[in-house]
Protein backbone atom coordinates (compact mmCIF):
# COMPACT_ATOMS: atom_id res chain seq x y z
CA UNK A 1 0.00 0.00 0.00
CA UNK A 2 1.34 3.38 -0.94
CA UNK A 3 1.44 5.44 2.23
CA UNK A 4 2.51 8.83 0.95
CA UNK A 5 0.50 11.88 0.10
CA UNK A 6 -2.59 12.02 -2.14
CA UNK A 7 -4.60 9.11 -3.56
CA UNK A 8 -2.78 7.91 -6.66
CA UNK A 9 -4.29 7.76 -10.15
CA UNK A 10 -3.12 5.47 -12.90
CA UNK A 11 -4.70 6.38 -16.24
CA UNK A 12 -4.17 4.48 -19.47
CA UNK A 13 -4.10 6.32 -22.78
CA UNK A 14 -4.53 3.92 -25.68
CA UNK A 15 -4.01 6.77 -28.18
CA UNK A 16 -5.00 5.57 -31.68
CA UNK A 17 -4.75 1.88 -30.82
CA UNK A 18 -7.10 -0.93 -29.86
CA UNK A 19 -10.00 -3.02 -31.10
CA UNK A 20 -13.28 -4.24 -29.65
CA UNK A 21 -11.69 -7.60 -28.94
CA UNK A 22 -8.81 -5.94 -27.10
CA UNK A 23 -11.34 -4.17 -24.86
CA UNK A 24 -13.01 -7.50 -24.03
CA UNK A 25 -9.67 -9.10 -23.26
CA UNK A 26 -8.60 -6.09 -21.19
CA UNK A 27 -11.80 -6.11 -19.14
CA UNK A 28 -11.35 -9.83 -18.51
CA UNK A 29 -7.71 -9.51 -17.42
CA UNK A 30 -7.77 -6.23 -15.49
CA UNK A 31 -7.53 -6.82 -11.75
CA UNK A 32 -10.48 -4.95 -10.23
CA UNK A 33 -8.96 -5.06 -6.73
CA UNK A 34 -7.19 -1.81 -7.64
CA UNK A 35 -10.49 0.04 -7.89
CA UNK A 36 -10.97 -0.16 -4.13
CA UNK A 37 -8.05 1.93 -2.97
CA UNK A 38 -6.75 4.03 -5.84
CA UNK A 39 -8.04 5.91 -8.85
CA UNK A 40 -7.86 4.13 -12.20
CA UNK A 41 -9.01 5.24 -15.63
CA UNK A 42 -8.72 3.97 -19.16
CA UNK A 43 -8.92 6.34 -22.12
CA UNK A 44 -9.47 4.38 -25.34
CA UNK A 45 -10.13 5.90 -28.77
CA UNK A 46 -13.64 7.40 -28.62
CA UNK A 47 -15.08 4.73 -30.93
CA UNK A 48 -14.30 2.15 -28.23
CA UNK A 49 -15.61 4.04 -25.19
CA UNK A 50 -19.02 2.30 -25.27
CA UNK A 51 -17.32 -1.12 -25.26
CA UNK A 52 -16.05 -0.40 -21.76
CA UNK A 53 -19.58 -0.19 -20.37
CA UNK A 54 -19.44 -3.95 -19.74
CA UNK A 55 -16.57 -3.61 -17.27
CA UNK A 56 -16.05 -1.67 -14.07
CA UNK A 57 -13.04 0.34 -15.18
CA UNK A 58 -13.76 4.09 -15.13
CA UNK A 59 -13.47 5.34 -18.66
CA UNK A 60 -12.15 8.57 -20.12
CA UNK A 61 -11.84 10.25 -23.49
CA UNK A 62 -8.63 11.42 -25.13
CA UNK A 63 -9.95 14.81 -26.23
CA UNK A 64 -13.11 16.91 -26.40
CA UNK A 65 -14.36 19.90 -28.34
CA UNK A 66 -14.52 23.30 -26.67
CA UNK A 67 -17.84 23.82 -28.52
CA UNK A 68 -21.36 22.68 -27.76
CA UNK A 69 -23.24 20.18 -29.96
CA UNK A 70 -23.66 21.41 -33.52
CA UNK A 71 -21.85 21.73 -36.81
CA UNK A 72 -18.36 20.54 -35.84
CA UNK A 73 -17.60 17.54 -38.01
CA UNK A 74 -15.48 14.89 -36.35
CA UNK A 75 -15.63 16.36 -32.85
CA UNK A 76 -17.18 15.15 -29.60
CA UNK A 77 -18.86 17.38 -27.02
CA UNK A 78 -18.83 17.22 -23.24
CA UNK A 79 -22.50 16.24 -23.26
CA UNK A 80 -21.66 13.25 -25.47
CA UNK A 81 -18.91 12.23 -23.06
CA UNK A 82 -21.39 12.53 -20.20
CA UNK A 83 -23.89 10.42 -22.12
CA UNK A 84 -21.27 7.65 -22.19
CA UNK A 85 -20.39 8.19 -18.52
CA UNK A 86 -16.85 9.35 -19.12
CA UNK A 87 -15.35 10.29 -15.80
CA UNK A 88 -12.14 11.74 -17.23
CA UNK A 89 -10.93 13.41 -20.40
CA UNK A 90 -7.34 14.10 -21.42
CA UNK A 91 -6.71 17.58 -22.84
CA UNK A 92 -3.59 19.18 -24.22
CA UNK A 93 -1.67 16.00 -24.90
CA UNK A 94 1.50 16.94 -26.80
CA UNK A 95 0.37 14.76 -29.72
CA UNK A 96 -2.76 16.89 -30.09
CA UNK A 97 -0.81 20.10 -29.63
CA UNK A 98 1.56 18.93 -32.42
CA UNK A 99 -0.83 17.10 -34.77
CA UNK A 100 -3.68 19.60 -34.50
CA UNK A 101 -1.91 22.83 -33.56
CA UNK A 102 -3.77 23.12 -30.25
CA UNK A 103 -2.75 26.16 -28.22
CA UNK A 104 -2.62 26.34 -24.44
CA UNK A 105 -5.58 28.75 -24.58
CA UNK A 106 -7.68 26.17 -26.45
CA UNK A 107 -6.60 23.50 -23.97
CA UNK A 108 -7.77 25.80 -21.16
CA UNK A 109 -11.15 26.28 -22.90
CA UNK A 110 -11.57 22.51 -23.17
CA UNK A 111 -10.66 22.02 -19.52
CA UNK A 112 -13.17 24.70 -18.50
CA UNK A 113 -15.89 23.02 -20.55
CA UNK A 114 -15.17 19.65 -18.93
CA UNK A 115 -15.22 21.05 -15.40
CA UNK A 116 -18.53 22.76 -16.10
CA UNK A 117 -19.89 19.38 -17.25
CA UNK A 118 -18.58 17.51 -14.19
CA UNK A 119 -15.88 15.60 -16.06
CA UNK A 120 -12.33 15.56 -14.68
CA UNK A 121 -9.84 17.02 -17.14
CA UNK A 122 -6.38 15.47 -17.23
CA UNK A 123 -4.45 18.53 -18.37
CA UNK A 124 -1.16 17.66 -20.05
CA UNK A 125 1.97 19.74 -20.15
CA UNK A 126 5.60 18.99 -20.94
CA UNK A 127 8.59 20.19 -22.85
CA UNK A 128 10.39 19.06 -26.01
CA UNK A 129 14.05 18.01 -25.76
CA UNK A 130 15.33 21.34 -27.11
CA UNK A 131 13.68 23.18 -24.21
CA UNK A 132 15.17 20.80 -21.66
CA UNK A 133 18.60 21.17 -23.23
CA UNK A 134 18.23 24.94 -23.08
CA UNK A 135 17.45 24.69 -19.34
CA UNK A 136 14.01 26.27 -19.76
CA UNK A 137 11.71 23.47 -18.59
CA UNK A 138 10.05 25.36 -15.74
CA UNK A 139 9.31 28.43 -17.85
CA UNK A 140 7.85 26.29 -20.63
CA UNK A 141 5.59 24.25 -18.36
CA UNK A 142 4.56 27.33 -16.41
CA UNK A 143 3.41 29.09 -19.60
CA UNK A 144 1.31 26.04 -20.57
CA UNK A 145 -0.35 25.86 -17.16
CA UNK A 146 -0.75 29.60 -16.72
CA UNK A 147 -3.22 29.62 -19.62
CA UNK A 148 -5.38 27.20 -17.62
CA UNK A 149 -5.07 29.09 -14.34
CA UNK A 150 -5.80 32.39 -16.08
CA UNK A 151 -8.96 30.91 -17.63
CA UNK A 152 -10.42 28.85 -14.77
CA UNK A 153 -10.95 30.18 -11.23
CA UNK A 154 -9.05 28.10 -8.67
CA UNK A 155 -12.33 27.45 -6.87
CA UNK A 156 -13.33 25.31 -9.87
CA UNK A 157 -10.06 23.44 -10.29
CA UNK A 158 -10.53 21.07 -7.35
CA UNK A 159 -11.23 18.04 -9.51
CA UNK A 160 -8.70 18.75 -12.24
CA UNK A 161 -5.64 16.55 -12.72
CA UNK A 162 -2.34 17.64 -14.26
CA UNK A 163 -0.10 15.28 -16.21
CA UNK A 164 3.55 16.21 -16.74
CA UNK A 165 4.79 14.45 -19.86
CA UNK A 166 8.21 15.42 -21.19
CA UNK A 167 7.84 14.95 -24.95
CA UNK A 168 11.27 13.35 -25.31
CA UNK A 169 10.16 10.55 -22.95
CA UNK A 170 6.89 9.71 -24.73
CA UNK A 171 6.96 6.39 -26.53
CA UNK A 172 10.75 6.47 -26.67
CA UNK A 173 11.61 4.08 -23.88
CA UNK A 174 13.64 6.94 -22.36
CA UNK A 175 12.04 7.85 -19.04
CA UNK A 176 12.78 10.96 -17.06
CA UNK A 177 14.74 9.84 -14.03
CA UNK A 178 12.62 9.84 -10.86
CA UNK A 179 14.57 12.91 -9.68
CA UNK A 180 14.13 14.77 -13.00
CA UNK A 181 10.42 14.08 -12.90
CA UNK A 182 10.13 14.97 -9.21
CA UNK A 183 11.89 18.30 -9.78
CA UNK A 184 9.32 19.37 -12.37
CA UNK A 185 6.40 18.04 -10.32
CA UNK A 186 7.62 20.01 -7.30
CA UNK A 187 7.85 23.10 -9.48
CA UNK A 188 4.28 22.54 -10.75
CA UNK A 189 2.99 22.14 -7.21
CA UNK A 190 4.77 25.34 -6.20
CA UNK A 191 3.20 27.06 -9.20
CA UNK A 192 -0.27 25.90 -8.09
CA UNK A 193 0.50 27.03 -4.53
CA UNK A 194 1.11 30.54 -5.84
CA UNK A 195 -2.65 30.53 -6.61
CA UNK A 196 -3.95 28.39 -3.74
CA UNK A 197 -2.03 26.37 -1.17
CA UNK A 198 -4.86 23.93 -0.42
CA UNK A 199 -5.36 23.19 -4.10
CA UNK A 200 -1.62 22.56 -4.45
CA UNK A 201 -1.75 20.02 -1.62
CA UNK A 202 -4.70 18.13 -3.05
CA UNK A 203 -4.17 18.18 -6.81
CA UNK A 204 -3.02 14.95 -8.41
CA UNK A 205 -0.01 15.50 -10.68
CA UNK A 206 0.70 12.49 -12.88
CA UNK A 207 3.91 11.63 -14.68
CA UNK A 208 3.78 10.28 -18.25
CA UNK A 209 6.51 9.11 -20.58
CA UNK A 210 7.65 5.51 -20.94
CA UNK A 211 6.25 4.38 -17.59
CA UNK A 212 6.63 0.59 -17.44
CA UNK A 213 6.13 -2.09 -14.79
CA UNK A 214 9.82 -1.94 -13.91
CA UNK A 215 10.11 1.83 -13.32
CA UNK A 216 6.63 2.72 -12.02
CA UNK A 217 7.27 2.11 -8.34
CA UNK A 218 10.24 4.42 -8.11
CA UNK A 219 8.50 7.16 -10.07
CA UNK A 220 5.28 6.91 -8.02
CA UNK A 221 7.36 6.90 -4.83
CA UNK A 222 8.45 10.51 -5.41
CA UNK A 223 6.88 13.06 -3.09
CA UNK A 224 5.06 15.03 -5.79
CA UNK A 225 4.24 12.26 -8.28
CA UNK A 226 0.69 11.05 -7.77
CA UNK A 227 0.50 8.32 -10.38
CA UNK A 228 0.94 8.06 -14.12
CA UNK A 229 -0.54 8.61 -17.54
CA UNK A 230 0.43 5.43 -19.33
CA UNK A 231 0.61 5.04 -23.10
CA UNK A 232 2.12 1.90 -24.64
CA UNK A 233 2.13 -0.16 -21.44
CA UNK A 234 -1.62 0.38 -20.95
CA UNK A 235 -2.42 -1.73 -24.00
CA UNK A 236 -1.60 -4.96 -22.16
CA UNK A 237 -3.70 -5.64 -19.08
CA UNK A 238 -0.81 -7.59 -17.56
CA UNK A 239 1.51 -4.55 -17.75
CA UNK A 240 -1.24 -2.14 -16.72
CA UNK A 241 -2.01 -4.34 -13.69
CA UNK A 242 1.68 -4.33 -12.77
CA UNK A 243 1.81 -0.52 -12.99
CA UNK A 244 -1.36 -0.25 -10.88
CA UNK A 245 0.27 -2.60 -8.37
CA UNK A 246 3.13 -0.10 -8.05
CA UNK A 247 0.59 2.52 -6.97
CA UNK A 248 -1.55 0.22 -4.81
O1 LIG B 1 -0.39 9.66 -22.61
C1 LIG B 1 0.57 8.91 -22.43
C2 LIG B 1 1.91 9.35 -22.70
O2 LIG B 1 2.02 10.05 -23.89
C3 LIG B 1 3.00 8.35 -22.47
O3 LIG B 1 3.09 7.41 -23.51
P1 LIG B 1 4.10 6.19 -23.36
O4 LIG B 1 3.81 5.56 -22.03
O5 LIG B 1 3.82 5.28 -24.51
O6 LIG B 1 5.49 6.78 -23.38
UniProtKB/TrEMBL annotation:
One of the Pfam families matching this protein, by short name: TIM
Keyword Ribonucleoprotein belongs to the record: no
GO cellular component: cytosol
Active site location: 93, 165
The protein's annotated pathway: Carbohydrate biosynthesis; gluconeogenesis; Carbohydrate metabolism; erythritol degradation; Carbohydrate degradation; glycolysis; D-glyceraldehyde 3-phosphate from glycerone phosphate: step 1/1
Residues the record lists as binding substrate: 13-15, 171, 210, 231-232
Intracellular or extracellular location(s): Cytoplasm
Record text on subunit structure and interactions: Homodimer.
Assigned protein family: Belongs to the triosephosphate isomerase family.
PANTHER family per the UniProt record, alphabetical: TRIOSEPHOSPHATE ISOMERASE
Full protein name: Triosephosphate isomerase
Organism of origin: Alteromonas confluentis
Organism lineage: Bacteria, Pseudomonadati, Pseudomonadota, Gammaproteobacteria, Alteromonadales
Amino acid sequence: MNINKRKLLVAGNWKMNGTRSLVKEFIKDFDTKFLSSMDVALCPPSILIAEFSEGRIPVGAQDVSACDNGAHTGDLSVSMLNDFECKYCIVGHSERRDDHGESSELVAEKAAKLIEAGITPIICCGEPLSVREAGKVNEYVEAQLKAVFDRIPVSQLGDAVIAYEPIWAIGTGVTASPQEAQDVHAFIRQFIASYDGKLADSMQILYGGSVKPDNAKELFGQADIDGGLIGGASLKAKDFNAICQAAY
